[in-house]
């Protein structure tokens, strides 16, 4: 199949945003009748590349050729007219309209301005049956069907006779196993009809199940193009998350002097799971223990954190607190039981930009005390000064608005906010994302020294080295399963990568 | 599922109307006649026309509070031009219809291009139009123009001896046209798509801006047409005509089964929503002892029931989706 000429070829693509090189010297080749996976971690440039391809962004440098002819598209509509159709992760259809209308609205068959419903329904039915193997009542409103079927209908809308390339942007992220199978049947059928399919995903299993060829991006750069059958899982994971060694050496070694005592059990999850989020898992967290969660994006790391904090309700299993303190039903319970959760979305779920450092710090403590017991201003200032010194927050001015701080310092203020409530268990979801290396090291040091004092942590990070450095125990996740638990002596990048890759 | 889920609210509305009409016929002699039914159209022609325009606005996910004031302004402008300036009705009527459409499109453009809530924009439109009435005159202007009085008095006899007015025929024609527009034209379907999910409609390449502005234009046109019909009915122009009428209109649309969140509902539902309001009034006048304020009480209760009913239906819908 690789003998044929590529139907779409992107070469030497560069794209810069103010202050960021989003894509540099990236290439991509799509062959007719092939499923081509595009893989990479968060921020690798997958979305940017697709947006360049579909005309949402313009390219700074580089060429896009469709069937050997250079093209420039300025909008998704133009791209679709040229034969490049896209189905996004979120289903962008109107659920109040019928299935047939969702496929045809805007281009309904008409005579003298009158919509021909029978004709439209017949054509919709044929299209779904012939191209997607889907036999459903097209006169029902779309909301009657599952997300998976809606996704197929989005594909039907995107396809027209002239489609040559179909882009599926993380289509499986909200589907369960059966629904994914149904989608893949359709993808195989479309592939056999000669369509070139670009499949964006972060699920390794799915990539191997459906793809013929894979392109990997890392940090906006091209990290390789392989035939899927020639690429081992381990190699793939290394390409996606392997780090430059010199960057690591700048960080001090922290692992020495780690506590090897196993304190009393603080939290125990037995068979805890939630459909579509994380398969049932067991996890025990002891006093003074740092439990790392390692895995690729979308492997279920945040989902575990949310279950532990009571932010999502489990379908199965039990979460028990040590010392017979019952269980957790809501974030409110969790806070009462001295569990703190620092979300990965610092900007939207964490800081309040127009409040000062001091005000941001005392929020959780004040909430815990109740609204009517105001913390005296003097006490607030003492607290702020103390934590600014402790965490080395810059600028050391408690009255500075938090939105004027760098990402690393904002993160430290958030840590201070939760530390003030004196948690027994502190869940940190990507606490070091997007912050500079110095601040990273300080946060890691803080986690270690607090754990020595008996605080327990759940530490989530995409950076494997970081998880290794701080954790006493690492739970490895793959495709929403907890696949392995690795404790101190066996911990190495290699064992974890192997577990992530599943080889 | 034998009965299509989406038809449930409208079937409830129709059944309710039939039940009320049957109850009236059972309780009062002379109620069960074609004439009583025709009178529902004769007496509520302007409500029907306004409510049809409102249906499109609500289906698109918006609201139009300016319709009552627009009716008053239309009666005022018509009366002033015909009576005081001596213009011909053949000029005045097209002119006021154009005025309504332009006024509506202006509000639609503000709503779309400046991304302001329809509630606020049309609230401003409501005050503005009502205010203009008093610029023309603070008193009632009575119309004795021959065309207006003729239209008002013309009775078209139907087979069987009952009759219907010209206004009622206009209203029925508007209803028929609106049903066609809503279900058999791209504009109509775009209104439903817009009300269902504006973001998706935009990404599906539908003309969101044009549709939204046209919806308010149509509502402005309908309320001006209702104003013309109201002028036939009252034979006067007055700044206090149709005060609070926008709320009756919204009530008729909601009782007709249209969701206030947009995207779900039928013009035919609105048609029966108007008839339900009419039949309540008729029952009260046949009773003779009840105050006409009982109409408001019944409509209030019906609205509560319908909103709860819709809530239950949409809750069931999200369960089905799981």
Characterize this entry briefly.
With 503 residues, chain A is of the alpha/beta class. Chain A has 2 domains: 239 residues, Rossmann fold (3-Layer(aba) Sandwich); 192 residues, Rossmann fold, CATH 3.40.50.300.
What does this molecule look like?
- The complex is a heterodimer of chains A (503) and B (322).
- By secondary structure, chain A is an alpha/beta fold.
- Chain A folds into two domains: 239 residues, P-loop containing nucleotide triphosphate hydrolases (Rossmann fold); 192 residues, 3-Layer(aba) Sandwich (Rossmann fold), CATH 3.40.50.300.
- Chain A contains 18 helices and 21 strands.
- In chain A, the strands form five sheets. A six-stranded mixed beta sheet of chain A has the order 6-9-10-3-11-12, sandwiched between helices. In chain A, strands 17-18-19-15-20-21 form a six-stranded mixed beta sheet, with helices on both faces. A four-stranded antiparallel beta sheet of chain A has the order 2-1-4-5, with helices on one face.
- In chain A, a hairpin with a 2-residue loop joins strand 1 and strand 2.
- Chain A is globular.
- About 2% of the residues of chain A have low confidence.
- Chain B has 14 helices and four strands.
- In chain B, helix 3 crosses helix 9 and helix 3 packs antiparallel against helix 13.
- With 322 residues, chain B is mostly helical.
- The two termini of chain B are 17 Å apart.
- In chain B, a hairpin with a 5-residue loop joins strand 2 and strand 3.
- Chain B has a single domain, classed as ABC transporter involved in vitamin B12 uptake, BtuC.
- Chain B has a two-stranded antiparallel ribbon.
- The longest helix of chain B is centred in the C-terminal third of the chain and has 28 residues.
- The interface between A and B is medium-sized, with 24 and 27 residues.
């Amino acid at each position: 199949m690789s003998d044929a000429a590529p139907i779409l070829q992107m070469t030497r693509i560069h794209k810069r945003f103010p202050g960021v090189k989003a894509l540099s010297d990236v290439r991509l080749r799509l062959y007719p009748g092939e499923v081509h996976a595009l893989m990479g971690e968060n921020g690798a440039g997958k979305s940017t590349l697709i947006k360049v391809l579909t005309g949402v962004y313009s390219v700074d440098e580089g060429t896009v050729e469709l069937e050997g002819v250079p093209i420039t598209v300025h909008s998704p509509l133009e791209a679709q007219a040229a034969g490049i159709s896209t189905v996004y992760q979120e289903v962008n259809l109107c659920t109040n309209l019928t299935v047939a209308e969702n496929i045809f609205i805007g281009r309904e068959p008409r005579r003298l301005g009158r919509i021909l419903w029978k004709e439209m329904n017949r054509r919709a039915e044929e299209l779904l049956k012939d191209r997607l193997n889907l036999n459903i009542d097209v006169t029902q409103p779309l909301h009657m069907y599952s997300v998976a079927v809606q996704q197929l209908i989005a594909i039907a809308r995107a396809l027209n006779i002239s489609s040559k390339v179909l882009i599926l942007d993380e289509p499986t992220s909200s589907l369960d196993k059966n629904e994914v199978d149904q989608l893949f049947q359709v993808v195989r059928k479309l592939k056999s009809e000669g369509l070139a399919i670009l499949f964006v995903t972060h699920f390794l299993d799915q990539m191997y199940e459906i793809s013929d060829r894979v392109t990997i991006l890392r940090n906006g750069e091209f990290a390789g193009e392989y035939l899927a059958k020639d690429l081992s899982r381990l190699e793939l994971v290394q390409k996606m998350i392997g780090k430059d060694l010199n960057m690591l050496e700048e960080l001090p070694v922290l692992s020495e002097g780690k506590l090897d005592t196993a304190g009393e059990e603080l939290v125990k999850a037995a068979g805890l799971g939630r459909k579509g989020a994380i398969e049932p898992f067991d996890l025990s967290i002891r006093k003074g223990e740092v439990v790392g969660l390692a895995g690729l994006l979308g492997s279920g790391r945040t989902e575990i954190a949310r279950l532990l904090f009571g932010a999502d309700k489990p379908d199965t299993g039990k979460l028990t607190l040590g010392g017979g303190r019952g269980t957790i039903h809501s974030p409110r319970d969790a806070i009462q039981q001295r569990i703190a959760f620092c979300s990965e979305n610092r900007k939207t779920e964490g800081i309040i930009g127009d409040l000062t450092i001091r005000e941001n710090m005392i929020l959780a403590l004040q909430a815990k005390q109740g609204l009517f017991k105001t913390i005296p201003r003097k006490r607030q200032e003492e607290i702020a000064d103390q934590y600014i010194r402790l965490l080395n927050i810059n600028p050391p001015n408690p009255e500075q608005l938090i939105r004027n701080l760098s990402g690393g310092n904002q993160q430290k203020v958030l840590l201070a906010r939760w530390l003030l409530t004196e948690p027994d268990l502190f869940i940190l979801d990507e606490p070091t994302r997007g912050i500079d290396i110095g601040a990273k090291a300080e946060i890691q040091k803080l986690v270690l020294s607090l754990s020595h004092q008996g605080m327990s942590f759940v530490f989530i990070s995409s950076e494997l080295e970081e998880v290794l450095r701080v954790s006493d125990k690492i739970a490895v996740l793959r495709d929403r399963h907890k696949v392995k638990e690795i404790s101190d002596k066996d911990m190495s990048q290699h064992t974890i990568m192997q577990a992530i890759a599943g080889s | 599922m034998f009965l299509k889920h989406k038809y449930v609210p409208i079937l409830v509305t129709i059944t309710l109307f039939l039940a009320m009409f049957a109850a009236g016929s059972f309780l009062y002699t002379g109620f069960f006649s074609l004439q009583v039914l025709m009178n529902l159209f004769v007496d509520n022609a302007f409500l029907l026309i306004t409510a049809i325009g409102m249906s499109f606005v609500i289906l698109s996910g918006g609201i139009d509070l300016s319709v009552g004031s627009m009716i008053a302004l239309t009666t005022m402008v018509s009366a002033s031009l015909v009576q005081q300036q001596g213009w011909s009705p053949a000029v005045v009527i097209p002119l006021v219809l154009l005025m309504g459409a332009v006024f509506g499109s202006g509000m639609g453009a503000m709503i779309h291009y400046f991304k302001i809530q329809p509630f606020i924009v049309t609230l401003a439109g409501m005050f503005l139009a009502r205010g203009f009435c008093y610029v023309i005159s603070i008193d009632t202007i009575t119309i004795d123009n021959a065309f207006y009085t003729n239209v008002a008095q013309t009775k078209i006899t139907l087979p069987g001896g009952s009759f219907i007015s010209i206004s009622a025929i206009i209203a029925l024609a508007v209803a028929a046209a609106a049903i066609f527009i809503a279900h058999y034209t791209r504009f109509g379907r775009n209104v439903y798509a817009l009300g269902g999910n504006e973001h998706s409609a935009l990404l599906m390449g539908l003309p969101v801006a044009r549709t939204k502005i046209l919806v308010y234009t149509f509502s402005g046109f309908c309320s001006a047409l209702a104003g013309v019909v109201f002028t036939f009915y009252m034979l006067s122009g007055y700044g206090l005509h149709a005060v609070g009428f926008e709320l009756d209109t919204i009530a008729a649309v909601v009782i007709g089964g249209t969701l206030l969140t947009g995207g779900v509902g039928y013009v035919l539902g609105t048609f029966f929503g108007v008839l339900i309001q009419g039949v309540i009034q008729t029952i009260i006048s046949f009773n003779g002892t009840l105050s006409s304020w009982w109409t408001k009480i019944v409509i209030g209760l019906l609205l509560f029931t319908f909103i709860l009913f819709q809530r239950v239906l949409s809750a069931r819908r999200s369960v089905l989706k799981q």
